[in-house]
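question for whoever is on the cluster today: can someone run the full assembly for these? two chains, 664 residues total. i dont have access anymore since they changed the login thing
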Amino acid sequence: MQTVLLENQESFILEPEQDTLYLVLLDKEADLGKIKVDLSFNKSEVNCRLLFLGRLKSKSNWQIESNSRHFVPKTSCLTEFYLSQADESRVDYFGQIYIGQKASQTKSFLKEQSLVLGKAVFNRSRPILEIFNNKVKASHSASSSRISETDLFYLMSRGFEKNEAEKILEEAFFNKVFDSVKVEEARELIKGYLC
Amino acid sequence: MRQPSLKKLNDAYAEKFGFSMPEKSVLSFDFGLSEKVIEDISNSKKEPKWMKDFRLESLQIFRQKPMPTWGPSLEEIDFEQIRYFIKDTDVEKKTWDEVPKEIKDTFDRLGVLQAEREFLAGVKAQYNSEVAYSSLQAELDEQGVIFCSMEEALQKHSDLFKEYFAKLIPAADNKFAALNSAAWSGGSFVYIPPNTHVKRPLQSYFRINAARMGQFERTLIIADEGSSAHYVEGCTAPVYSEYSLHSAVVEVFVKKDARFRYTTIQNWSGNIYNLVTKRAKVFQNGVMEWVDGNLGAKMTMKYPSCYLVEEGAYGEMLSIAYAKNHQIQDTGAKMLHLAKNTSSKIIAKSVSIAGGQSNYRGLVFISKAAKNSKSKVECDALILDDQSATCTYPDMKISGENAVVEHEASVSEIEEEKLYYLMSRGLDKTEAMTLLVAGFIEPIVKELPLEYAVELNRLIELEMEGSVG
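^ ran it for u. tokens below:
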């Protein structure tokens, strides 16, 4: 599977020809951010993964959109979205999976997880499924929650300061994603982003 | 062996729902909506001036409001081709013997009598636009529970009525709420006094019996502090080639520590637009549960909501949608968390078959004030052939601190392995699929009162026949 880093643009319109891992690393220093990725599957037997990672700084404001549109049989797409949100950050996410009438044996999944680190955070999420064929598997899941108080308490009881404990838990949140990526090139990019 | 029994059941269904009794109305108005029609409706009901003014003001709002620009197309509805009021009985009957024979025949065929004998606490049987028959059980009177028609409540409990009427769904809420506010007729009024627990479900039977007739019933429910009750409405309608419109409004107030469940089984015939606004306001530690089954109608647009306005309030929605023969079931729920420590749950299941389309459309809103709130949404869709479709359109807006929100949705077909197993045990494909569909919706069906659960399973069985293969 090839790795493609999507950067330096607000909008990407893509028609994958081969198995690809698309990686989007949201700018950690940006106050305002906007990105849209359209993936249209017009070739059979193509499998893709679209991975968004974001450590959003305080008071940043992001608009993010992803569309996975399947028009032919036997394609698959896994769209994942992992964010940590600092104080007063805002995210508006729109994610669509469309499976057309001819796209039998499609598999398409959308997974979205937000870890709330700060106060007065806003998170809007609209994960949409539009399915017009029965021989498919499609799902989405979304969750948004604060760092677990129990985990925080445990780490602080071991001598960590609160901000240090929060940092460890944030790292653990992203490490799950890091471990799931097997392509070395992508691992290096993610590692660099998380450091 | 099962096939003849299915056939028999299907015939019974045609007999049961595919007929219409001859129209014989005491009062009825021409097609279309005008100030005169609204005034005539109000005058015929001998309403106070404030209600007539409210209706006329609502008519203006209705005219100003645009049609919804989202969701399925409603272009086909021609408001000038709808008759806005038909009254079958000029006086509400108190005993079954006094009910006119035609109406009685209809209800006999629908099984109301039997249902009442066996299960019902009190029946508000609606025939066309007005309550035709009501039997309030002695125990309800003893408990101080008010369960009557809206018209009766307006006359006899005017202060209570005025205090709550249209306070949760004002006429300006949306175009169809405005239409209902202008032309409403019939529906139930329920008041449960503080710390009163109504053990048996309060039931209402709705029915449309005239072509091109809009039914605009309005329901107002107040569950006072510490009370609990269960209200059940079920809908059936005869088949017509021309379309009809059903546009109801339901307002429910669940006071501190009260618990209320509102169950609907909707089985309108395939020519009806079912556009309903339902909303509950839930106070401190109150619990509101919507249980909603949508099987019939040409198109349903219905999103019951809970406004969780005080600490500890809980809202729940369990829904089933079954879309067949190019029906569109556009249903869902809205949970608005407006106070701290509130929680909500939405479980929506849908089945699409034979060109049907079922959509889930929902909102979870957690305001800044709603600290430590939780919400969970689960949508599961089953799509049974390549002519059908299913969509989900959830929207989650989260501002409250320490909010925990989970959302899951999945779309799948019936698993071949399960189908194969059941067929290897001797069932044919239809029977096996019916069984699997019944299993899919079972978590919600088990929440229904017994007779409704039985009826729903029978209807699914009938609907599946001839649709598979």
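summary bc i know u wont read the tokens: Residues 25 and 88 of chain B are 5 Å apart (CA to CA). The interface with chain A takes residues 368, 381, 383-386, 388-399, 401-413 of chain B (CB under 8 Å).
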